[in-house]
Amino acid sequence: DIQMTQSPSSVSASVGDRVTITCRASQDISSWLAWFQQIPGKPPKLLIYGASNLQSGVPSRFSGSGSGTDFTLTISSLQPEDFAMYYCQQTNSFPLTFGGGTKVEIK
Amino acid sequence: QITLKESGLTLVKPTQTLTLTCTFSGFSLSTIGVGVGWIRQPPGKALEWLALVYWDDDKRYSPPLKSRLTITKDTSKKQVVLTMTNMDPVDTATYYCAHSDDAFDIWGQGTTVTVSS
Prior knowledge:
The structure holds two protein chains of two kinds. Chain A is an all-beta fold. Helices cover 0% and strands 50% of the residues of chain A.
């Protein structure tokens, strides 16, 4: 199984800050990576697929990069509605696996 | 637009079988490349993928749970059913179904299942 490791597990930031979350795969997954945002009590929302493709309707302040084993989700200017949990997921091979999550908190 | 909704019993006893139904609209599960998956999330924990069925009836399961899971589709009814046998309190979680087209792009609201005697 491919293990997905996210860091940090939590980050405190202020509105307007640039936030970067990393996700590392235990083996090469090419660009088969998705990022999700989850607000408490809500289902996950797809932000990025194929490592760097912005899902329709997602604000452009979100961006994804990386390939192989190391990936990054960047929020260029944090907005109040961005305080949430973020998960990465590899879609390269079965079993599909998620990272442990990163909580973006208000500083 | 694409929507999915999970339904099923919300309280089950240990050793019982859980049956969850995902009823969807806005797409066909006979379209090449499309699938419907199930993902769960225990309270306060991360997401865990369970199973996925594709348009061609290819079925994939999480290896640790494979012996307990069955996923089926009814294309005409626009439903996907997940059964999980021998439920245990550690299976208490919110269960989501999601549309898959390279990624889980649309999710249902989820249904919370509690396993308790």
